[in-house]
Amino acid sequence: MRAMIESSSDKAGVTHFGYRDVPESDKARLVGEVFTSVARKYDIMNDLMSFGVHRLWKRYFVGTSGVREGDRVLDLAGGTGDIAALLLPKVGAKGSVVVGDINGDMLRVGRDRLLDRGLARGLDWSQMDAEALPFPDRSFDCVTMAFGLRNVTRKENALREIHRVLKIGGRALVLEFSAVRSDFLKPLYDFHSFQVLPRIGQLIAGDEASYRYLAESIRKHPDQETLKAMMEAAGLERVDVRNLSAGIVAIHRGYRV
């Protein structure tokens, strides 16, 4: 097991931004600048970075979520709208999905894209910080977070907030890049992450630095066992982990009981 990676520096008030140590007070701004830069090219870059597999990961994530008709779901870091669009048929006319993201540019891009597809009913969009959710206790049947937790400054705070806003019996679902389990795949994955992705980012989005940060942020994110322990420490129970694509990504699921 890796060390508790969120404490990547021994200095109080310091966290990581990729491979750099930065003041905790600066990380949200720096991450915001990254996602403001990549917002309009985010979807095409995801397709190029994952060879389109991210769409399968997301479909599986929602397909195994247990979300049912009438549920109220909070989708955190959901600015692209990908997860919300998949959740809507599951919650049905009696349910709802709140899409929350700290970055207004990502929210606007995602909202406009779903509106263009005629998807508006049952959807609410709100700019919010995952570490301080603007909802009462026990507000949601399910909270989802796909490819967003690694960008949160104090992940333990976000996990406690997720636990707080879940109803009794509610589920927390986190889809995130994780630790590759295949020794054969690791060097290929590293080459793709650090040599290919930044160059694609420069070519397509005109932004090599942001995509280098995204690759680095994956390596700084807690591995499967560490994140499982963090979710349990936040109060979630019956936490389980499901690896996809040899651990390139993993689904963590926990319950409020």
Explained architecture:
It is globular, with a radius of gyration of 17 Å. Helix 4 (82-91) links the parallel strand 3 and strand 4. Helices cover 44% and strands 23% of the residues. The chain is built from nine helices and nine strands. It has a single domain (14-255), classed as Rossmann fold (3-Layer(aba) Sandwich). The two termini are 27 Å apart. The protein is of the alpha/beta class and 257 residues long. Helix 3 packs parallel to helix 4 (82-91). The chain has helices at residues 24-38, 42-50, 53-63, 82-91, 104-116, 155-165, 185-205, 208-220, 224-233; strands at 14-17, 20-23, 72-76, 96-101, 123-127, 140-146, 166-177, 237-244, 249-255. The strands form two sheets. Strands 5-4-3-6-7-9-8 form a seven-stranded mixed beta sheet, sandwiched between helices. Strands 1-2 form a two-stranded antiparallel sheet.
Can you lay out the helices and strands and say which pair or pack?
Layout: E1 14-17, E2 20-23, H1 24-38, H2 42-50, H3 53-63, E3 72-76, H4 82-91, E4 96-101, H5 104-116, E5 123-127, E6 140-146, H6 155-165, E7 166-177, H7 185-205, H8 208-220, H9 224-233, E8 237-244, E9 249-255
Parallel strand pairs: 3-4, 3-6, 4-5, 6-7
Antiparallel strand pairs: 1-2, 7-9, 8-9
Helix pairs in contact: 3-4, 7-8
